[in-house]
Amino acid sequence: MIKARYSTISRTIYLLIAVFLLSFSVRADENAPAAPDSQKNSIYVFLPQQSTVVQTGGIAGIHRTYVIEGQFQLSIDPNMGSVFFTHVDANAVDDSPYKRSLDPNEVFNLAGLVGIIVDDTLIYFAGRDSNGSDIFITAILNDDLIYIFAQTYPPAGSADFFIFNMDAVAQRKYGGGTGEPNDPYKIASSADLIELGDSPEDYDKHFILTADIDLYPNLPGGKVFDKAVIAFDTNDATPWSFDGNPFVGVFDGNGYTISHLTITGKSYLGLFGRLGVKAEVKNLGVVDAQINGSGFFDFGGLVGCNSGSVIQCYSSGIIIGGSGIGGLVGTNYGTLTRCSSTGSVSGNDRVGGLVGFNERGNITNCYSTSIVTGSYYVGGLVGSHVGNITNCYSTGVVTGNEAIGGLVGRNGIQGVVPNPGYIKNSYSLTSVRGEIFVGGLVGDNRVGDVMQCYSAGGVSGNESVGGLVGLSDWGGVLRSVWDVETSGLSGSAGGVGLTTREMMDPYMLGLNGFADDPNWVLDPGRNYPRLAWEGTPGQIIAGPDINWLTGRGTSETPYKIDTFDQFIMLSKGSVLWDKHFVLGADIDLNPVLPNRIVFEQAPIQVFTGVFDGNGHVISCLTIKGVSYLGLFGLLGVKAEVKKLGVVDVHITGSGGCIGGIVGFSGGCTMNCC
Questions:
Q1: Roughly how many angstroms between the first and final C-alpha of the chain, as a whole number?
Q2: Within-domain flag for 198
Q3: Which residues, other chains included, contact 117 with Cβ-Cβ below 8 Å and sequence gap of 6+?
Q4: What is the tens place of the pLDDT at every residue in 573-607?
Q5: What letter would DSSP give residue 32?
Q6: How, if at all, do strands 580-583 and 610-612 pair?
Q7: What is the CATH number of the domain that holds 398?
């Protein structure tokens, strides 16, 4: 009916329109009808099966029909009541063997015309081309379609001129917009989202979500996807590499969610299969996702493999895959900021609540509460980590076999060229269960550093099990603590073990590097330290007053250790392990004496200061642990231990680097026996 109504409009009416347009000459019309917001500055794509240009006339009296393909931008200025065709990129080809073509923009001078808004659905254009022919166009807006009827009229007495008629239908791309930074394409429905996935030529554009989208398969138009919705892998036969086009544009979720995404496929699965280096996805929730991958690599609720930036996004659901499985991101080469995940994540190796494999990526202010299950390199936040994790936490449950950690399964990769992992200002309350290399924070601290972190979840395993760290081979653990009561373990391959009360005591936390750091707050006696960005009650932890030792810890005035209690406090105060000390008396550590213990790790884990025994002895040191065992677990390059006797030592270790005074020395020992 729309075509029938307007295809017979007379030339007289068009001429009246032309006179009207020319008389007002694109002046502002205060009473001009406003077009719907969705129609302003939208890209439209011609539907070839419904879009033609007919050419008639000329001396030979030809009659040719051309099919139109391409797109254009319709720009509407509601304040001026004016409309423009901009960025016209279209071509029309006939069906003859010669495949003659013409340019609709040139024939109808589309980019040179100015139209007026008649009402919410009707726009009129009138003008003239370079040959003097009059041009009249009627455009009718109908939801996401635009119907265009155009005709040229040659000047009077020009029998050799051609007459052109356009009868076309174009569909608005997505929910509107132009894909530019200041006017992103609008994604308002599942159809828009699927259209984006099928349009790799738009993967470098800007998009914004304008409504929650439900992808539940049983809804009308819903389905179970067999690939990622956007930027999917195009070749399942080569699972070790991504074949396809990564998304490199900007996708702003605008605070909305995409729910019930369901995928049963091979590899590189998620809402996005792969994000390129320049990609940015932000302010988006992917909720109640169900992703089941039978391939080898990269499965996540939001993205399979990320090389871009993911900001303030979250996910929930069930994610299953082989290697590189995360609640939000499978494998991360890029950055994650203020992101979270919850649900169930399971696979074989590199399985994490938030990220399966963090490969030189940066993860900041993120958390996961997921239940995570795997075989190797399984973590509450990240399965296998190379890069930086800062100000993050995890809760939930983690279960696996080897390299199982509450926050990170394996930290760093040891190879010909070591690839370290760095974890700072982070914690885990996750319950952890594994077989070998199991830790409350990190299972296997292979290469890298853990700094100012803690764990307080239950930990169980069979070999190389630690309250904070299960195994620390070439990695360092600095100023970090764990709860010996909730973990059920008084030993670790790094860190300081504290009671639950001590874990909530600002003084004891200050002795281990948590003081005067705006990243941490503490509600004393009520809670463990929490990250400031969480917004929980608490205050910054004050620096401790070392009033239980005489001296100042300098080379001129070293701290003096005279008693067993002072020595134990030193073993619980890692912030002091770079100071100068002098022994003022012999100290007996015999575990049969009151308040003595059998240590499960070196009393002083990593020492970088100066310890002067002053000719005294420490006796009956008893340790049953794993590696780096001795009075000092490891001496740093500038460390110095001198004039000290360690006698009647009883040390049993299942690993390497075991000695009476030092497990591994990178420093200096002099006149010790």
A1: 103
A2: no
A3: 32, 33, 34, 35, 76, 78, 81, 82, 83, 123
A4: 999 999 999 999 999 999 999 988 999 999 999 99
A5: P
A6: parallel
A7: 2.160.20
Q: Per DSSP, which regions of 365-468 are E strands? A: 367-368, 371-373, 376-379, 382-390, 393-394, 397-399, 402-405, 408-411, 421-424, 427-428, 431-433, 436-439, 442-451, 454-455, 459-460, 463-466
Residue type, 42: S
Residue 196 lies in a domain: no
Residue 168, domain extent:
2-172
Quote the tokens at residue 354: 């938030």
Same domain for 512 and 392:
yes
Q: CA dist 633 to 374, 439, 478, Å?
A: 32, 18, 12
Q: Amino acid identity, residue 495?
A: G
C-alpha span between 52 and 168 (Å, rounded): 6
Specify whether 151 is located in the same domain as 291.
no
101 lies in the same domain as 234: no
- Strands (E) located in 461-515: 463-466, 469-478, 481-483, 496-498
- 552 in a structural domain: no
* Cross-strand partners of 65: 54
pTM of the shown model: 0.90
Which two three-digit tokens encode residue 471?
């195994």
pLDDT given for residue 212 in this prediction: 97
Residue with token string 């659901």: 317
d(CA 413, CA 419): 5
One-letter identity of residue 308:
G
Name residues of the chain where pLDDT drops below 70. Answer: 1-40, 159-160, 239, 667-671, 673
Q: Where are the alpha helices (DSSP H) in 91-209?
A: 104-107, 190-197
**Domain co-membership, 494 together with 585:** no
Among residues 216, 29, 272, 37, the alpha carbon closest in space to that of 141 is found at 37
Query: What does each C-alpha distance from 431 to 327, 397, 434, 504 come to in angstroms?
Result: 17, 5, 10, 19
For residue 207, being part of any structural domain is answered with no
Task: State both tokens at 555.
Answer: 């080379």
DSSP H/E element including 250:
strand 250-252
Q: Closest Cα partner for 424 from 383, 454, 389?
A: 389
Residues 14 and 133 sit within 8 Å (Cβ to Cβ): no
Q: State which of 485, 501, 534 marks the end of a domain.
A: 534
C-alpha distances (whole Å) from 51 to each of 67, 92, 104, 126, 171 are 6, 9, 11, 20, 11
- Assess whether 528 and 564 both reside in one domain: no
Q: Are 361 and 333 in contact (CB under 8 A)?
A: yes
CA separation for the pair 601, 95 (Å, rounded):
84
Report the C-alpha gap between 554 and 496 in whole angstroms. Answer: 23
Side chain identity at residue 331, one-letter code: T
Is the distance from CB of 123 to CB of 116 less than 8 angstroms?
yes
520 lies in the same domain as 612 = no
How far is Cα 629 from Cα 611, in angstroms, rounded to an integer? 17
Token pair in block for residue 558:
């070293």
Specify whether 138 is located in the same domain as 231: no
Residue 268's pLDDT is 95
Q: Which two tokens stand for residue 201?
A: 């030529």
**165-185 pLDDT, tens digit each:** 999 999 999 999 999 999 999
- How far is the C-alpha of 237 from the C-alpha of 234, rounded, in Å? 9
Cα–Cα–Cα angle for 609, 531, 428, nearest 5°?
Answer: 80
How far apart (Å, rounded) are the C-alpha atoms in residues 314 and 329? 10
d(CA 73, CA 209): 20
Structural contact between residues 51 and 67, judged by C-beta atoms closer than 8 angstroms: yes
Q: What is the pLDDT of residue 416?
A: 75
Residues 49, 69: contact at Cβ < 8 Å?
no
Last residue of a domain, one of 118, 146, 172: 172
- Same domain? 239 vs 130: no
CATH of the domain at 29: 2.40.128
- The predicted structure's pLDDT at residue 671: 65
For the chain, how many structural domains are there in total? 3
